[in-house]
UniProtKB/TrEMBL annotation:
Name used for this protein in its record: nitrogenase
Enzyme Commission number(s) from the entry: 1.18.6.1
InterPro entries: NifH/chlL_CS, NifH/frxC, P-loop_NTPase
Protein's UniProt keywords contain ATP-binding: yes
Subunit-structure text: Homodimer.
Catalytic activity reported: N2 + 8 reduced [2Fe-2S]-[ferredoxin] + 16 ATP + 16 H2O = H2 + 8 oxidized [2Fe-2S]-[ferredoxin] + 2 NH4(+) + 16 ADP + 16 phosphate + 6 H(+)
Gene source species: Candidatus Enterocloster excrementipullorum
Cofactors demanded by this protein: [4Fe-4S] cluster
Amino acid sequence: MKKIAIYGKGGIGKSTTTSNLSAALARKGFRVMQIGCDPKADSTKNLMEGRKIPTVLDMLREKDDQVELEDICFAGYGNVVCVESGGPTPGIGCAGRGIITAFEKLEELDAFAVYRPDIVFYDVLGDVVCGGFAMPIRGGYADNVFIVTSGEMMALFAADNIARAIGNFGKRGYAKLSGIIQNSRNVEDEDELVRKAAGEMHTQVLHIVPRDKTVQLAENQGKTVIEAFPDSPMAADYQALADKVLEVIGQ
């Protein structure tokens, strides 16, 4: 089982990228689990035909110790196992702590042993790398980390913060930064800006995802590009990204 964390600034297209990766790998025959680690709980909706699934924290509030795997794990496109950690009641509690609680519940219920995924994706908000949001790195959950960014200043700023956090925890033998995924926004000199930033983070630009209206057309249907437009150039681009991820993680 390979465990991969995908980090990036909110709104950068991290969940879109992760969902299309999950769908692409499922089409290749891999058993995939995607765990959304964002209070918005919308990481997996395009694998679930646009439907937002109940979150781990919501079910814990509703059922307490009676929560079972079927309450928090759902089969999406390509039988991708979809999980959303969720967040606290607005204005009360800590979102980072919510991620820790969700992870603990999945472990308690032996989710990985039951579903036996080949690949697990943690889709993690990266604006603030506090203890909870750093859980996939520092808790020894993820083996590899990829950062999604564009050439926009704030996206690159967030990417640098994430890289620094990975570097701090990497000294303890935890997850390593394995590359940058450029989700293009067509800003001026974008490829060069991201390439330079990757060098400063001591990593590589794994893949450049072009800006394409096909992504929005698919999301309007509540689907990934892989599902909605499997023969499109954009689907081929996500498949190429999936191949590169497999190469990096040794699958």
